[in-house]
Amino acid sequence: MNERNLTAFASKSQKVVNYLPTSRQELSWFIIVAISAGFCEEVLFRMFVYEFALKHIGIIGSLLFTNVIFAITHIDTGMKNLVGAFILGLVFSLIFYFTQTIWIVVALHISIDLHAGMLGYRVHRFNTRTK
Fold it and tell me: pLDDT of 12-33, one tens digit each?
């Protein structure tokens, strides 16, 4: 991690900066939330919404329906992240469809959330040291 990478991340994360940890205590809580959110969201969207929709509207309809809803739940982080959540949700749904296991997408979701939190924490520490 160098100054250029941290600066680039900081400029791209303006919409989500309020969600990212700024202290060790917040980082600890963030880790717990990231794990629980990754697990709960994937169980809800892939195992319940997606599976229900799959039985009623088929594969294409369930992919679109489930991930539009998934994206809307991430709307508070900005339009760019809304599109990203939709695309990532599609990828997660396809992984779930082909593997028939929830654990891969849970692990991916948790790792993405943890990565964002760690980067946010490091950017904050970097910014407070250089001021």
Answer: 555 556 677 788 898 999 999 9
What's the pTM value of the predicted model, to 2 decimals? 0.80
Mean pLDDT of 62-82: 88
pLDDT for residue 130: 59
Contact 108, 6 (CB under 8 A): no
